[in-house]
Amino acid sequence: MIETAIDAARAAGDILRNALGTALVIETKQNQVANLVTDADTAAERAIIDLIRSRYPDHAILGEEGGASAGRADVKWIIDPLDGTTNFAHGVPLFSVSIAAEKNGEIVAGVVYNPVADEMFAAEKGAGATLNGVPMRVSTESDITRALLVTGFPYNVLENPDYCRERFVAFMMHVHGIRRLGSAALDCAYVAAGRLDGYWEVALQPWDQAAGVLLVREAGGTVTNFEGGPHSVYSLPFLGSNGLIHERMIEILAFAKRLQIAVTGSK
Ligand code: IPD
Ligand code: CA
Ligand code: CA
Q: Which of 46, 102, 209, 265 is most buried, judging by how many CB atoms fall within 10 Å of its CB?
Protein backbone atom coordinates (compact mmCIF):
# COMPACT_ATOMS: atom_id res chain seq x y z
CA MET A 1 0.00 0.00 0.00
CA ILE A 2 2.91 2.38 0.65
CA GLU A 3 4.00 1.98 -2.98
CA THR A 4 0.51 2.76 -4.19
CA ALA A 5 0.37 5.81 -1.93
CA ILE A 6 3.72 7.04 -3.32
CA ASP A 7 2.69 6.45 -6.94
CA ALA A 8 -0.66 8.17 -6.39
CA ALA A 9 0.99 11.14 -4.66
CA ARG A 10 3.40 11.56 -7.58
CA ALA A 11 0.53 11.43 -10.10
CA ALA A 12 -1.39 14.10 -8.17
CA GLY A 13 1.80 16.11 -7.66
CA ASP A 14 2.38 16.27 -11.43
CA ILE A 15 -1.08 17.73 -11.92
CA LEU A 16 -0.59 20.32 -9.19
CA ARG A 17 2.92 21.34 -10.32
CA ASN A 18 1.68 21.86 -13.88
CA ALA A 19 -1.36 23.82 -12.75
CA LEU A 20 0.54 26.11 -10.34
CA GLY A 21 0.42 29.68 -11.57
CA THR A 22 -1.99 28.97 -14.46
CA ALA A 23 -5.51 30.39 -14.62
CA LEU A 24 -7.57 28.42 -12.13
CA VAL A 25 -11.22 28.02 -11.47
CA ILE A 26 -11.42 29.06 -7.83
CA GLU A 27 -14.58 28.66 -5.81
CA THR A 28 -15.32 29.10 -2.14
CA LYS A 29 -16.71 26.18 -0.18
CA GLN A 30 -20.00 26.39 1.72
CA ASN A 31 -20.10 30.13 1.10
CA GLN A 32 -17.09 30.65 3.39
CA VAL A 33 -14.94 33.54 2.19
CA ALA A 34 -11.59 31.88 3.00
CA ASN A 35 -12.23 28.20 2.17
CA LEU A 36 -11.18 27.79 -1.47
CA VAL A 37 -11.34 24.89 -3.89
CA THR A 38 -9.78 24.87 -7.37
CA ASP A 39 -10.22 22.60 -10.36
CA ALA A 40 -6.73 21.25 -9.54
CA ASP A 41 -8.03 19.92 -6.18
CA THR A 42 -10.62 17.83 -7.96
CA ALA A 43 -8.35 16.73 -10.83
CA ALA A 44 -5.66 15.61 -8.36
CA GLU A 45 -8.17 13.69 -6.25
CA ARG A 46 -9.50 11.97 -9.40
CA ALA A 47 -5.99 10.83 -10.35
CA ILE A 48 -5.35 9.45 -6.85
CA ILE A 49 -8.64 7.58 -6.65
CA ASP A 50 -8.28 6.14 -10.19
CA LEU A 51 -4.86 4.73 -9.31
CA ILE A 52 -5.96 3.27 -5.97
CA ARG A 53 -9.09 1.77 -7.52
CA SER A 54 -7.04 0.18 -10.33
CA ARG A 55 -5.00 -1.74 -7.72
CA TYR A 56 -7.50 -2.14 -4.88
CA PRO A 57 -11.00 -2.00 -6.36
CA ASP A 58 -12.72 -3.01 -3.12
CA HIS A 59 -11.06 -0.60 -0.65
CA ALA A 60 -13.11 2.22 0.94
CA ILE A 61 -12.04 5.80 0.23
CA LEU A 62 -12.46 9.05 2.14
CA GLY A 63 -11.36 11.96 -0.05
CA GLU A 64 -11.73 15.61 0.93
CA GLU A 65 -13.41 16.63 -2.30
CA GLY A 66 -15.40 13.49 -3.13
CA GLY A 67 -16.39 12.52 0.38
CA ALA A 68 -16.78 8.89 1.39
CA SER A 69 -17.13 6.01 -1.03
CA ALA A 70 -18.07 2.53 0.03
CA GLY A 71 -15.75 -0.46 0.11
CA ARG A 72 -14.36 -3.10 2.44
CA ALA A 73 -15.00 -2.25 6.06
CA ASP A 74 -11.43 -3.02 7.18
CA VAL A 75 -9.37 -0.84 4.78
CA LYS A 76 -9.84 2.84 4.02
CA TRP A 77 -7.75 5.37 2.13
CA ILE A 78 -7.84 8.91 3.51
CA ILE A 79 -6.89 11.55 0.95
CA ASP A 80 -6.21 15.26 0.80
CA PRO A 81 -5.33 15.82 -2.88
CA LEU A 82 -4.13 19.37 -2.25
CA ASP A 83 -3.31 20.45 1.26
CA GLY A 84 -2.53 24.15 1.17
CA THR A 85 -5.11 25.27 -1.35
CA THR A 86 -4.91 28.90 -0.27
CA ASN A 87 -1.14 28.97 -0.97
CA PHE A 88 -1.70 27.17 -4.28
CA ALA A 89 -4.44 29.54 -5.41
CA HIS A 90 -2.14 32.50 -4.72
CA GLY A 91 0.82 30.95 -6.54
CA VAL A 92 2.77 30.25 -3.34
CA PRO A 93 4.70 27.01 -3.99
CA LEU A 94 4.07 25.50 -0.56
CA PHE A 95 1.45 22.76 -0.59
CA SER A 96 1.28 18.99 -0.51
CA VAL A 97 -0.58 15.81 -1.35
CA SER A 98 -1.52 13.67 1.67
CA ILE A 99 -2.50 10.01 1.35
CA ALA A 100 -2.95 7.52 4.21
CA ALA A 101 -4.15 3.94 4.42
CA GLU A 102 -6.12 2.87 7.48
CA LYS A 103 -6.48 -0.81 8.38
CA ASN A 104 -8.79 -1.98 11.15
CA GLY A 105 -8.95 1.58 12.49
CA GLU A 106 -5.15 2.13 12.51
CA ILE A 107 -3.12 4.21 10.07
CA VAL A 108 -0.61 1.75 8.59
CA ALA A 109 0.88 3.73 5.69
CA GLY A 110 1.11 7.43 4.93
CA VAL A 111 2.79 9.80 2.52
CA VAL A 112 3.00 13.57 2.29
CA TYR A 113 4.45 14.84 -1.00
CA ASN A 114 5.62 18.35 -1.80
CA PRO A 115 5.67 18.29 -5.62
CA VAL A 116 7.52 21.59 -6.07
CA ALA A 117 10.44 20.61 -3.83
CA ASP A 118 10.05 16.97 -4.94
CA GLU A 119 10.10 15.84 -1.31
CA MET A 120 8.37 12.55 -0.50
CA PHE A 121 7.81 11.98 3.21
CA ALA A 122 6.68 8.40 3.80
CA ALA A 123 6.02 6.07 6.72
CA GLU A 124 4.81 2.56 7.35
CA LYS A 125 3.63 1.50 10.78
CA GLY A 126 6.51 -0.10 12.67
CA ALA A 127 9.03 0.50 9.87
CA GLY A 128 10.10 4.10 10.50
CA ALA A 129 9.78 7.23 8.37
CA THR A 130 11.76 8.43 5.37
CA LEU A 131 12.36 11.55 3.31
CA ASN A 132 13.07 10.65 -0.31
CA GLY A 133 14.01 7.17 0.86
CA VAL A 134 16.43 8.31 3.59
CA PRO A 135 15.42 7.64 7.24
CA MET A 136 14.30 10.77 9.09
CA ARG A 137 13.97 11.59 12.79
CA VAL A 138 12.36 14.31 14.87
CA SER A 139 14.59 17.01 16.36
CA THR A 140 16.42 16.68 19.69
CA GLU A 141 15.52 20.13 21.04
CA SER A 142 14.33 19.82 24.64
CA ASP A 143 14.14 23.51 25.58
CA ILE A 144 10.97 25.13 24.30
CA THR A 145 12.55 28.59 24.39
CA ARG A 146 14.79 27.41 21.55
CA ALA A 147 11.99 25.65 19.65
CA LEU A 148 10.59 26.57 16.26
CA LEU A 149 6.89 25.70 16.22
CA VAL A 150 4.23 25.72 13.56
CA THR A 151 0.47 26.14 13.66
CA GLY A 152 -2.50 26.73 11.42
CA PHE A 153 -5.92 28.29 11.75
CA PRO A 154 -9.31 26.93 10.77
CA TYR A 155 -11.37 28.74 8.13
CA ASN A 156 -13.75 30.02 10.85
CA VAL A 157 -10.82 31.59 12.73
CA LEU A 158 -12.83 34.81 13.22
CA GLU A 159 -15.09 32.88 15.59
CA ASN A 160 -11.95 32.00 17.62
CA PRO A 161 -12.80 28.30 18.02
CA ASP A 162 -11.15 26.53 20.98
CA TYR A 163 -9.20 29.63 22.06
CA CYS A 164 -7.02 29.47 18.95
CA ARG A 165 -6.05 33.15 19.13
CA GLU A 166 -5.10 33.09 22.83
CA ARG A 167 -3.14 29.87 22.35
CA PHE A 168 -1.16 31.41 19.51
CA VAL A 169 -0.29 34.48 21.59
CA ALA A 170 0.71 32.34 24.59
CA PHE A 171 3.15 30.32 22.48
CA MET A 172 4.63 33.50 20.98
CA MET A 173 5.90 34.48 24.42
CA HIS A 174 7.69 31.18 25.04
CA VAL A 175 9.43 30.05 21.86
CA HIS A 176 12.05 30.89 19.29
CA GLY A 177 9.46 31.37 16.56
CA ILE A 178 6.14 30.23 15.13
CA ARG A 179 5.50 29.52 11.45
CA ARG A 180 2.19 29.28 9.63
CA LEU A 181 3.05 27.32 6.49
CA GLY A 182 -0.53 26.78 5.29
CA SER A 183 -0.43 23.00 4.84
CA ALA A 184 -1.20 20.85 7.87
CA ALA A 185 0.26 17.74 6.22
CA LEU A 186 3.55 19.54 5.51
CA ASP A 187 3.58 20.90 9.07
CA CYS A 188 3.52 17.31 10.33
CA ALA A 189 6.12 16.21 7.77
CA TYR A 190 8.47 19.02 8.83
CA VAL A 191 8.15 18.00 12.50
CA ALA A 192 8.89 14.41 11.49
CA ALA A 193 11.95 15.58 9.55
CA GLY A 194 13.26 17.56 12.53
CA ARG A 195 12.94 20.92 10.76
CA LEU A 196 10.30 22.08 13.23
CA ASP A 197 10.01 21.00 16.86
CA GLY A 198 6.25 21.02 17.42
CA TYR A 199 2.88 21.65 15.78
CA TRP A 200 -0.55 22.34 17.22
CA GLU A 201 -3.83 23.20 15.52
CA VAL A 202 -7.31 23.41 17.05
CA ALA A 203 -9.32 21.80 14.25
CA LEU A 204 -8.05 19.38 11.63
CA GLN A 205 -10.03 17.05 9.40
CA PRO A 206 -9.02 13.37 8.94
CA TRP A 207 -7.46 14.03 5.51
CA ASP A 208 -5.30 16.88 6.90
CA GLN A 209 -3.66 14.72 9.57
CA ALA A 210 -3.99 10.98 8.80
CA ALA A 211 -0.65 10.62 6.99
CA GLY A 212 1.06 13.25 9.14
CA VAL A 213 0.29 11.50 12.43
CA LEU A 214 2.05 8.36 11.24
CA LEU A 215 5.03 10.36 9.94
CA VAL A 216 5.57 12.07 13.30
CA ARG A 217 5.19 8.85 15.31
CA GLU A 218 7.38 6.74 13.04
CA ALA A 219 10.05 9.46 13.13
CA GLY A 220 10.15 9.10 16.93
CA GLY A 221 7.79 11.94 17.86
CA THR A 222 4.62 12.15 19.95
CA VAL A 223 1.04 12.93 18.89
CA THR A 224 -1.79 13.49 21.40
CA ASN A 225 -4.80 15.70 21.97
CA PHE A 226 -4.28 19.04 23.78
CA GLU A 227 -4.50 17.37 27.20
CA GLY A 228 -1.93 14.71 26.42
CA GLY A 229 -4.60 12.04 25.92
CA PRO A 230 -5.08 9.71 22.95
CA HIS A 231 -5.35 11.33 19.54
CA SER A 232 -7.76 10.29 16.82
CA VAL A 233 -7.63 11.43 13.20
CA TYR A 234 -11.42 11.79 13.49
CA SER A 235 -11.26 14.40 16.24
CA LEU A 236 -10.30 18.01 15.76
CA PRO A 237 -7.33 19.05 17.95
CA PHE A 238 -3.83 18.03 16.94
CA LEU A 239 -0.66 18.25 19.01
CA GLY A 240 2.50 16.73 17.60
CA SER A 241 6.11 17.26 18.65
CA ASN A 242 9.54 15.75 19.00
CA GLY A 243 8.29 14.38 22.35
CA LEU A 244 10.84 16.36 24.38
CA ILE A 245 8.84 19.60 24.42
CA HIS A 246 5.43 17.90 24.47
CA GLU A 247 4.63 18.38 28.17
CA ARG A 248 5.56 22.05 27.97
CA MET A 249 3.32 22.51 24.94
CA ILE A 250 0.43 20.92 26.85
CA GLU A 251 1.05 23.33 29.76
CA ILE A 252 1.06 26.38 27.49
CA LEU A 253 -2.11 25.26 25.67
CA ALA A 254 -3.85 24.82 29.03
CA PHE A 255 -2.49 28.07 30.46
CA ALA A 256 -3.87 30.10 27.54
CA LYS A 257 -7.31 28.56 27.94
CA ARG A 258 -7.38 29.03 31.73
CA LEU A 259 -6.26 32.63 31.42
CA GLN A 260 -8.92 33.47 28.87
CA ILE A 261 -11.64 31.84 30.95
CA ALA A 262 -10.43 33.78 34.00
CA VAL A 263 -10.43 37.06 32.05
CA THR A 264 -13.81 36.68 30.37
CA GLY A 265 -15.45 34.70 33.16
CA SER A 266 -16.99 32.34 30.62
CA LYS A 267 -16.23 28.89 29.25
C1 IPD B 1 -5.94 23.52 5.30
C2 IPD B 1 -4.45 23.62 5.50
C3 IPD B 1 -4.12 24.66 6.55
C4 IPD B 1 -4.83 24.37 7.87
C5 IPD B 1 -6.31 24.24 7.66
C6 IPD B 1 -6.62 23.19 6.59
P7 IPD B 1 -6.70 22.80 2.79
O8 IPD B 1 -6.25 22.50 4.35
O9 IPD B 1 -3.93 22.39 5.92
O10 IPD B 1 -2.74 24.72 6.84
O11 IPD B 1 -4.55 25.43 8.75
O12 IPD B 1 -6.88 23.84 8.90
O13 IPD B 1 -8.01 23.10 6.39
O14 IPD B 1 -8.04 23.47 2.84
O15 IPD B 1 -5.66 23.66 2.18
O16 IPD B 1 -6.76 21.43 2.21
CA1 CA C 1 -6.29 20.06 4.05
CA1 CA D 1 -7.40 20.10 0.54
A: 209
